[in-house]
Amino acid sequence: MAHTDELKTSQRILMGPGPSDVHPRVLKAMSMPLVGHLDPEFVDVMDDIKAMLREVFQTENDLTFAVSAPGSAGMECCLVNLLEPGDEAVVCVHGVFGGRMAEIAERCGAAVIRVEAPWGEPIRADVVARALSGRRPKLVSVVHAETSTGVLQPLGEISRLAHDAGALLVVDAVTSLGGTELKVDEWGIDAVYSGSQKCLSAPPGLSPVSFGPRALAAIEARRTKVQSWFLDVTLVRGYWGGARRAYHHTAPVSSCFALREALRLVLEEGLPARFERHRRHHELLRRALEELGFEFVVAPEYRLPMLNAVRLPAGVDDAAVRRRLLDEYSIEVGAGLGEFTGKIWRVGLMGESSTVNHVHVLLAALRDVLA
Amino acid sequence: MAHTDELKTSQRILMGPGPSDVHPRVLKAMSMPLVGHLDPEFVDVMDDIKAMLREVFQTENDLTFAVSAPGSAGMECCLVNLLEPGDEAVVCVHGVFGGRMAEIAERCGAAVIRVEAPWGEPIRADVVARALSGRRPKLVSVVHAETSTGVLQPLGEISRLAHDAGALLVVDAVTSLGGTELKVDEWGIDAVYSGSQKCLSAPPGLSPVSFGPRALAAIEARRTKVQSWFLDVTLVRGYWGGARRAYHHTAPVSSCFALREALRLVLEEGLPARFERHRRHHELLRRALEELGFEFVVAPEYRLPMLNAVRLPAGVDDAAVRRRLLDEYSIEVGAGLGEFTGKIWRVGLMGESSTVNHVHVLLAALRDVLA
Hints:
CATH superfamily of the largest domain in chain A: Type I PLP-dependent aspartate aminotransferase-like (Major domain)
Helix content of chain A: 25-40%
Largest interface: A-B, 77 and 77 residues
Distance between the termini of chain A: 46 Å
Oligomer: homodimer
């Protein structure tokens, strides 16, 4: 065996599409000695997480908890529980993550009807209406904050259309939760998933999810077992809820400690102040990036405040400049993904990474590198 | 929102079925500031984990990595990648975790042939031989260390029988890895999964897995897509291996830092010394528990050194005594699971929890409580 050294990492400034920087209080929670996954003290931690997630999701949904895996597993959790072979699913695709939802829905045996928009634009409600015409699909799914394109998707009209067609509304809120308004109950969202490592600024590894009463009714009416045992919410909810907690799997205890602390920070700040902070720093960054010759991919009214998708100034070498930012300034910005690979950057201002100083150090470094 | 206090947990002494106590060096690694999940420094961390896991699994398998979720997801990862609808699977069931494998295999659409043994006994090779007679199943699966019963399952004969029948051998090593001999290559194991929180003594949330060449060939010969996108190793391996790392999901960065440090500790001690330590403390505990009137569930030759399944002395109230151990001595021991609920204890001596002092404090507390 070759000798493996002590872990040595650089002190990064995380301004990519997540993970974002983590508050020292959250890092401290990660390093607390463990308790057992069925310890009464851990049950209290789970209850705290559920209560705080309800606040952050703005929902009364009882079945609100954190899947013991990253956001992609949260996506899969929502879809495998709601879809059965032969179901129809209308999946909105305007970036990588909508495409991933379609892929997973197909693996559930669903007949997928794709509703598309060009990358960088939102899904138009009239296109959804056309797809729903004459159909009674099981669900309509859509990405609220497309991390691959920087688009903030309006949900009101799509929610109305979905419910008029008798469908459930499933929303990807991986990048939006805790960074911009997301009203699960008021907007009629039936199932929603997120990630711990974006605007909540906990380490990656947990996926907050919430299922509403219509989604639960659909799950209870299933004719077949959920194809994933690990993600089957009819089993998982016995561990996360109820009078007596039943063992299902071993939750990532330390990651739950961290998420709990991250949620405390979110609620101490308050959602309105937090959303305003994300808008303010987005605006500060936007003005300066445009002066430097970057162009925003998305029209102003649909721009995400926490994920800035920008085309590079002419002549700027994407990979070389990102590498210099990382090596010389220890700043991470995100590369393009999918059809935007090599064409755009994704500059994240998420959670603890949405500060005036993050904006300043990035701009100063960019002025150096591009000079 | 009700005010949520700072996290306050007790300093537990973890002697249940996992998580086990975590070394301060591992807790420190958990609290390191994060780097991005595609940062070159994180790619190095992933490479270190793969290399060290190969040492611990005693394998040359290239596809050796950590699933970004707990052990149950590792189980599901092995089965969903290897099984397709209509496949036959011979599943050995002699406790909760064999039963879980059968359940997952059925959810993959496989025809499951159960080979059973009474709880507390190993699976007999002749019963496996009978089940395989006239069959060419896709795989035979078996639990190496049944955490629900305390049985150490011999694998040599079952491996030979499985391969003679043209089947792959899938092994659950959640509780055995790092605590007792497990020779993946020498024993002909084609796919194996474990957990981070048992004898490796990292926090829960990662599941080390390894796939051998026959398993890879079976995956490449699939006629259908793997039903789980999140666990599809043909996608995950692009993130964990290869010349250029492709984004698949966001790995739990901090948990990977911790697993890396935990593996360093395992290899600094060395596998033979570590296995001997687990045997020694098991023996110390066994003698004293028997003096106190506890009876081991499993015959001596099949006993797990890291998980001691014992029947309580007559008249001892299971739940009340466990609760006193937790409340008055901050010691966690495990309850019985499945058909052993209320009938046995599971006393873990895993990884960092396998020390002479752990044995001593438990015995002293038990003498107090049972006096």
